[in-house]
Every structure is written in structure tokens, then in C-alpha cells.
Amino acid sequence: MNRFLLASFAALIGASAAFAHVGSPDVFFEGKAGEYRVFVTIRTPQVIPGVAEVELRFPEPGAEQVKITPTPLTGLGAKFAPTPDTATRSPLDPQSYTGSLWMMSSGAWQVRINVTGSKGTGELRVPVPALAQQTMGMDPKMAGALLALMVFLAVGIVSIFGAASREGKLPPGEQPTPTHIRRARIVMAATAVAVVGIIFLGNQWWGAEAADYSRKIFKPLAVKPTLNGRFLNLQLEHTGWMQSPAFDDLVPDHGYLMHLFVVAKPGQGRIWHLHPALASNGAFTQDLSSLPAGRYQLLGDIVHRSGLPETVVAELDIPADIDGELKGDDSTNQLTNGLKMVMESPATLKAKSLQVMKFKLLDATGQPATGMELYLGMPAHAAVLRDDFTVFSHLHPSGTVPAASLAMAQPADGKADPHAGHSMSAAELPAEVTFPYGFPEPGNYKMFVQMKRAGKVETGVFAITVTN
Length: 468
Ligand SMILES: [Cu+2]
Prior knowledge:
alpha+beta, Immunoglobulin-like, 27 strands, binds copper (II) ion, single chain, elongated, 5 helices, about 20% helix, five-stranded antiparallel beta sheet
């Protein structure tokens, strides 16, 4: 009978694991399928196997038929795609399409989007991590009803067996003798023992299934920070999820194995985007020169060879100021040379829906800045952080998908274009960028936007309120 308790216990474990993930599992992406520019939202399933909801919005008309197909990101499964599903065109907005896709196993998946219309055919492949986030708890009303049914059936079967042995062979109208009654009691006791035994075994089976499933619930790798003078050492640690025993399956993303965001607590006015060097398997080291004393949140983005991205999270106390200067691509957050960064989207946004946020870098005279450069191969990078640190997402103008995963999704025969849909020509790089993103829940957020100009990374900090 405590199977219901077990189920709710499993749900609790699930809830805490979902919290450890950095709270933003859905995929937002802008890219091109052939000549068709499209905004892609993929709402990932909470349980695996589960259904991913795909929403597509074409800013320009022309797309007439849209097919979507889920396949694993890499390996044999990626070569043998199942039959595509036709996405449903919205009756209200002919440039929007929706569809649902089953994701059958945990890991790195992709959704292939095939578009036919007035501009020919085109394909776009969008990587999606399919990770079990939680065990679905049972609805208390359903649990109550099932419990009542179970008691009714158990009592029912005991009394049926009792009545059968007491009166089954009696001619109509005759009363059972004390012998009959005694025998019936023995039968009822034996039946009750058997019923309790069956319920007990059923409970064991349920518990085993729940425990087995809870092992599949995604738990990101842990990381242990230690401070050694001005050097930060980061040691990755296993958490028991299906993880590679050595930490040797990481692949570089924009040329670095880890993108570490160091955020000052509690005000979160400042952020550093650092690139720790690999010291040995699973151990990274970073020079923290230029960090003032204080408490920091560490958020490290890594990508596995499978294409699965994850974020490792830790807290760090720095007891005394570390003086010095950052080097290379590492960056802090300041706007220099009288530059100004402005957000052109409303400062109040709705949760859970796709927003295309626009930012501009202006020079001292208020004109769009010139001399823009790519920063780590991208026109811009952004970090979205909820004020309580329960949500963190690392964005690019193409969306939430890491460039390394995106490159893996491209067909081996075609040219891999990790920046599909974005002009990468530095000569005419505009001082204006957009990021497609959907805030997972209401609350107060900070968004840190980084663009590179004249050899310097410029970071703008924006407070964003997200409503229901
Ligand atoms: Cu980035």
C-alpha cells in the first residue's frame, strides 16, 4: 500500500534533480532551412520516452509544407531517420507550424526540419538534449481512487472465496453448519494472506521500476572549486548518472573545453566569461587575476563528444582581492570608450514564450558603433541568469544550442555551417544583435550581453522582469 508513498518519494527526488539542472531545458533557435528563415522552439519532454513539442515560426511567407523528424544526434541512428511527421499549420497564423515528436531514449537528439514551398526545399537540423528531468508524481485524486479500488477488490476477493467455500455446495435455503463456517474462515484467512502477499510483491515491483527510472533522471556532473593563490582549480566529479568514467569525452565549443561564467553574488552586477585550461582529465585551472574579494557563483558550460551540453555549478569564496589583468579571450564586464549598449525589447517579457531580444552597441555620439569583430567566432554571446540562480542559459544570436552540438548535427557530406543563417563576414558586422530565447518562469533576471569591438569585449548588463 505504501506504493503511493514510494511514487511520491520518487517524485521528490525527481524535483530536486530537476533543480540541479540549470532550469532552462527548452531549445530556442533561429536558423535557415534552405532559403527559409525560421524560429524554432522545442519544448523538451520531462520524462523519457516522452513527447517533444516543436513550434516553428517563419518570419517571411513562402513555406508551404513542413516535415519534422527526430533522430539521435550522432551515430547510426542519425543515418536511418524514421518517417517524417508533417507539422500542422496554424489556422490563425499561416506562417506558424506545430508538431509533436517522440524521443525514445535519453541523450543527444536532433530534430530535422524539412521545408518545401515557393523558395524550393531546405533542411535545418537542430540539436536537442532529451533528458529525463523528473518522475511524474501521481495525482492525489487518482491515488485515492486507486487505493479505494484496491481495498474494495482485496476485501471483495476474500469474501467471495469465503462465501464460495461456506455456501457454494449448499442446496438453496439451507443454513451453513458450524463446520462450513469454520472451513470458510480458514479459506478467508488463507486468501487474505495471498492477497497481502500479491500486494507486497506488486509494491516491490513498483519500487524497483521507480528506482530504475530515477537512475535515468539527469544529474549534471558536479564540480569542486579550490583556490590556490590566484589560481582556481576545478575538479569535475561524477554524480551517478550515465556518465563516462573518465572525463575525456569533452569537445571544444568556440575553441574552448569550458566556458566559465563567474558571477558576483548577491548583487550580480558583474560577470566574467573565462576559459579555464585543461590540467588533466576532468581538472581545469584558471588564473583569477582581476577578481575582487567576495562570493561568486560559478557556471561552467561543457559539451560532450555525444553532443550533449551541460552546465556544472559551484560557489566560490574569494577571501582577498586578486589583482592583475585578464588575458586573451577572457573578459569582464565593462563598457569602455564611452560606449553604450541598449536593449530594444520591452523590459517586461512573458514567460515560456519565444522572445527575440535585440541589443545595440552605440558609440559616444549615439551612433551604431563601428569596428565590430567576432568574439569567439560569434557576433555576440549572452548569459541569462535568474536573480536566485535557479535559471542560467548561455545564448548566441542563433539561440541556446552550443556551436559544437550544432556542427555535429550537420550532414557529413554537406558543408558544416555552425552559424547557419548568420552573416559571419566581419567586414560588415553590424553593431546590432538579436537573441531568440524563452524565459522558463516568471521572475527577475539579469542578462549579460557581450560583443567585441576594436579588440575589446564590451559587456552590457540588463535587468529583465518576466511575468506570467
Ligand atoms: Cu558563447
